[in-house]
């Protein structure tokens, strides 16, 4: 419990900064919707002539591009990019910061098992992500009620919003796993930024090609907003895939960390 | 000089990883081109009719994705982001890592002035950035040429990569300036990345909303856009001057502050 409180305190500030920036980004992006909705109305008729593969390439259905949820799906990509960076950062630094700051021996000589240490740290990280998501959800709901032009499916909206949390959990798990596999991480930021951007770009170019198999590789494609809007549900295959990644990564982390050599 | 080789060696592994990333990015990005090109004949006229904000949402901007050059233009944005991340991380860590790894005392008691230390570090970083740029150019030119069936695009790509080099320099020296200015070595990387993400998101927001077009002077990602460099008037003089002054200011700050920096030990 002490470890949990200590960890939470050390993340408090960065969590607050991340939460506020994410909420700010959300508000900013939402505030652009009214102008776009006006533009789109005029353009909608022209769109009929679009060839099918091109429509697929840009990931938005013809009829939803101008809609509120269509716009939300588009802007959500950038919100999820930021969220993924936050989660991956958190995950990668969770265990490595003790080594970098030479506090690992202090921590690990305390009368707690490594598993307990790991559990407290993971819990603190999850709490930090939950905080961020509460901020994001509040901002998104608030802005949605202000800028919406038509009634939209609230359940789809909530499901898309919550997929941020699921995506973050996946990247948190990947981050912790990477941090116990790579022997010595000097700079957390370069590892996490590199990984997240690699997945992000894979997602963008994967969707341009309409490649189904590609979707399994990058978590950014697990929660496809277009599918959620249409069905008001997550795709079971990808939900399982995401849960599988999290479970496998966390199990591996417990196993590796409990017998890992700690460089001091 | 020893310092220079020491830095080159220290950064060689990450540079190789980055170069592999670039190669994969260009190759996999352009390999998708085949699928799109067959159906894009009518895209051009339609794109012109589309409002600017919608173009941004569609992800293509005003580029014609039915040609290899236009398709590369979209890819180029992400290459720029990669170059900027690499440069800003490199710039901030090459200065701050001595404090982070507690090697700063060892370094600074050597019989060379701080000016020399920072100069060699900067030169080493420049070489890294240059290699990154050259690898991007060679891989882009080769792969784009493979898919291109019109006139050669080597000149256009060289011009784009020159723009990217300037962008890399801006972020490299931004990184070193922040690392020299900040007291906390851990903060240097986060602050420069935050600025990088902020300017990247700003460039996207400008794409969506044309009413804040004047903000484009604030984000380097808007300085050398593919559609302008390849299909417009080339590198814009205003942006070149702006970039030069940014680079100069950041360099000045780096030297000025590093000389009087109170090292965290």
UniProtKB/TrEMBL annotation, chain A:
The chain crosses the membrane at residues 16-37, 71-92, 122-144, 156-181, 188-209, 237-257. GO terms for molecular function: ABC-type transporter activity. The keyword Transmembrane applies. The keyword Cell cycle does not apply. It holds the Pfam family ABC2_membrane_2. Keywords: Membrane, Transmembrane, Transmembrane helix. One of its GO terms (cellular component) is plasma membrane. PANTHER family: ABC TRANSPORTER PERMEASE, HYPOTHETICAL MEMBRANE PROTEIN, CONSERVED. This is ABC-2 type transport system permease protein.
TrEMBL record, chain B:
It holds the Pfam family ABC2_membrane_2. GO terms for molecular function: ABC-type transporter activity. The chain crosses the membrane at residues 71-96, 117-138, 158-182, 194-217, 237-258. One of its GO terms (cellular component) is plasma membrane. Keywords: Membrane, Transmembrane, Transmembrane helix. This is ABC-2 type transport system permease protein. It comes from Cytobacillus oceanisediminis. The lineage of its organism: Bacteria, Bacillati, Bacillota, Bacilli, Bacillales.
């Amino acid at each position: 419990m002490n470890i949990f409180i200590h960890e939470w305190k050390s993340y408090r500030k960065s969590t607050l900064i991340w939460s506020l920036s994410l909420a700010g980004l959300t508000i900013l992006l939402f505030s652009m919707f009214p102008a776009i909705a006006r533009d789109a109305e005029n353009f909608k008729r022209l769109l009929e002539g679009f060839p099918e593969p091109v429509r697929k390439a840009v990931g938005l259905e013809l009829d939803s591009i101008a809609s509120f949820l269509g716009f939300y799906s588009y802007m959500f990509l950038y919100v999820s990019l930021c969220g993924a960076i936050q989660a991956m950062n958190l995950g990668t630094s969770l265990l490595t910061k003790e080594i970098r700051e030479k506090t690992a021996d202090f921590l690990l000589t305390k009368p707690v098992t490594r598993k307990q240490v790991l559990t407290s740290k993971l819990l603190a990280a999850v709490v930090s992500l939950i905080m961020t998501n509460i901020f994001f959800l509040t901002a998104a709901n608030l802005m949605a009620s202000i800028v919406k032009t038509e009634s939209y499916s609230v359940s789809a909206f909530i499901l898309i919003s919550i997929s941020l949390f699921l995506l973050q959990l996946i990247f948190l798990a990947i981050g912790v796993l990477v941090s116990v596999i790579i022997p010595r991480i000097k700079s957390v930021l370069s590892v996490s930024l590199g990984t997240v951007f690699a997945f992000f770009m894979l997602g963008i170019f994967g969707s341009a090609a309409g490649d189904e198999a590609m979707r399994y590789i990058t978590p950014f494609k697990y929660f496809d907003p277009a599918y959620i809007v249409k069905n008001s549900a997550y795709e079971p295959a990808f939900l399982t895939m995401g849960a599988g990644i999290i479970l496998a990564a966390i199990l591996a982390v417990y196993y590796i960390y409990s017998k890992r050599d700690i460089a001091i | 000089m020893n310092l220079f080789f020491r830095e080159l060696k220290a950064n060689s592994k990450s540079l190789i990883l980055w170069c592999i990333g670039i190669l994969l990015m260009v190759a996999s990005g352009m390999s998708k081109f085949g699928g799109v090109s067959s159906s894009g004949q009518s895209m051009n006229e339609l794109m012109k009719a589309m409002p600017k904000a919608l173009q941004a949402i569609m992800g293509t901007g005003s580029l014609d994705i039915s040609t290899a050059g236009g398709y590369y233009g979209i890819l180029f944005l992400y290459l720029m982001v990669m170059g900027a991340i690499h440069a800003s991380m490199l710039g901030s860590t090459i200065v701050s890592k001595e404090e982070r790894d507690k090697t700063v005392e060892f370094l600074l008691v050597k019989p060379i002035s701080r000016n020399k230390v920072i100069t060699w570090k900067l030169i080493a970083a420049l070489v890294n950035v240059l290699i990154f740029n050259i690898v991007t150019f060679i891989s882009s030119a080769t792969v784009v040429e493979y898919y291109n069936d019109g006139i050669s695009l080597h000149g256009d790509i060289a011009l784009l990569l020159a723009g990217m080099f300037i962008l890399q320099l801006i972020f490299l020296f931004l990184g070193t300036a922040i690392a020299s200015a900040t007291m906390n070595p851990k903060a240097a990387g986060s602050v420069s990345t935050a600025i990088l993400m902020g300017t990247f998101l700003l460039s996207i927001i400008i794409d969506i909303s044309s009413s804040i077009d004047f903000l484009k002077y604030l984000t380097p990602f808007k300085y050398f856009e593919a559609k302008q460099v390849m299909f417009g008037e080339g590198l814009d003089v205003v942006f070149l001057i702006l970039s030069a002054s940014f680079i100069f200011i950041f360099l000045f700050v780096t030297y000025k502050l590093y000389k009087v920096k109170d090292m965290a030990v």
